Structures are given as C-alpha cells and as structure tokens.
C-alpha cells in the first residue's frame, strides 16, 4: 500500500508515484510561483506582468508559508490542481495582493480538503506573517466560490503537473 493513497502502488501511474515523493526544493517553489503568476496574469486579461521585486517578495512568502505549514506533497499537488482550476473563473479586480490571495486560497482549501486535521485560520495567519485570521477566512471563502466548491481531484489532475515539476 502506498501511504498517500492507501492503495497498492501498482494501481497508480509511475508519474504520480514520483510526484508523491516530491520534496520542497527551489525549483518546486519556482513552479508554484509561476503557476500562480500565470493564473493571475490570465485573470487580469494577460496585460499585467509583475516586476522583479514583487515576484521576489511573493516567492519569499510562498517559501515561508510552505516551510512553516509543513504541508505534505499531496497538499502541494492538490494546491496546483486548484490553481489551474481557478484560472478560467478567477476575477481579479486589482493586482494588489492577488498573487498571495490565489496562492493562500488554493493552499488552505487543499490542506483542509486533503486532511482531517489541519491548521486553523489563526495558524495560517501566523504562517503568512501578513494576513489576519479574518483575512484568511475571507480568502478561503472567496477561493471556494471561484472553484464553485468543486474540490475533488483525480489522478489525471495531479499527473498534469508531472512534467513541470
């Protein structure tokens, strides 16, 4: 049995098994940051690009939140699926905090969906060092509305990120 799925490993694609052993490395963080940036860029009509300082600051936040929250690979993969799923439905009125809100919304929803016991909003707020627990709750609700509460994830959804990772 594979501990991440409770099924025999032979019932999964080799690509998925590789992804389940994913380690949080700088290239993985860069891939996550790029996925979020592309999603927000798309939602802003493809007309906005981020300056290097904004991109660098966002990468720092992603790195910090992922290190502090200690989310497992399954949560990271689910986060990427949700980011991709949100792309077609996301409406961003302003680019202020857009990257952070999309990332945190996807991550928090993924964590709560994939685990019975997860961080509370006040702990997520501490992980960010920027947002309050009330902000986290709002970000989570907004993200759930964007994905229309469609949270199920298939093996194919996860494997879609194999090449990039």
Automatic annotation (TrEMBL):
SUPFAM superfamilies: Cyclin-like. GO terms for molecular function: cyclin-dependent protein serine/threonine kinase regulator activity; protein kinase binding. Residues 62-152 form the Cyclin N-terminal domain. It holds the Pfam family Cyclin_N. InterPro entries: Cyclin-like_sf, Cyclin_N, Cyclin_PHO80-like. Coiled coil: none annotated. GO terms for cellular component: cyclin-dependent protein kinase holoenzyme complex; nucleus. It comes from the Eukaryota. This is Cyclin N-terminal domain-containing protein.
